[in-house]
Amino acid sequence: MKCPSCGSERTRVKDSRPCGGETVRKRVCEGCGQRFSTAERITAEYLQVRKRDGRTEPFSRAKIRRSILKAAGSTALSPVDVNAFVDRVVQVLNPDAPDLPVPSRDIGRLVLQQLHSGDARIEIVRIRYAMVFMGGTRSASGASGT
């Protein structure tokens, strides 16, 4: 690990703690004495997603993050909250994804499960996400079956 202050690679870990799906490590540079922290997160780069049309593509945390933020609209969600939702989805996906593509529909369902909360703001985001995920962008007359 390079020191952000002097660029030395002689750093050592003083403390490690789990924190919201990440491991936060407090480090000290042996070259200049600068203290700094790093955060390690499990990546899901090897995951493949099977889209509804049958093609596969690499899993993207950014896409889930964007979709949650889009559903949030003007509802104030902190970046910490959004990252926590994404982290929980990734944690649930990891055990089930050796080399098999995960259907995008399953990922959408996981996002909905993780957005389930007693907080009214998050429930609004969950409902808006569900409307898009379930294809609820139809007109009111189409939804009522008339």
List keywords for this structure.
146 residues; alpha+beta; three-stranded mixed beta sheet; 6 strands; disordered C terminus
Strand order of the largest sheet: 1-2-3
Question: Rg to the nearest angstrom?
Answer: 20 Å
Instruction: Compute the average pLDDT.
Output: 81
Structure class = alpha+beta
How do the helices and strands follow one another from N- to C-terminus? EEEEEHHEHHH
Rough outline: elongated
Can you give a write-up of this model?
The chain has helices at 61-72, 79-93, 104-114, 120-133, 140-144; strands spanning 11-19, 22-29, 35-41, 48-50, 56-58, 102-103. 39% of the residues lie in helices and 22% in strands. Helix 2 (79-93) crosses helix 3 (104-114) and helix 3 packs antiparallel against helix 4 (120-133). It contains 5 helices and 6 strands. Residues 136-146 have low confidence and may be disordered. Strands 1-2-3 form a 3-stranded antiparallel beta sheet, with no helix packed on it. A 3-stranded mixed beta sheet has the order 5-4-6. It has 146 residues and is α+β, with helices and mostly antiparallel strands.
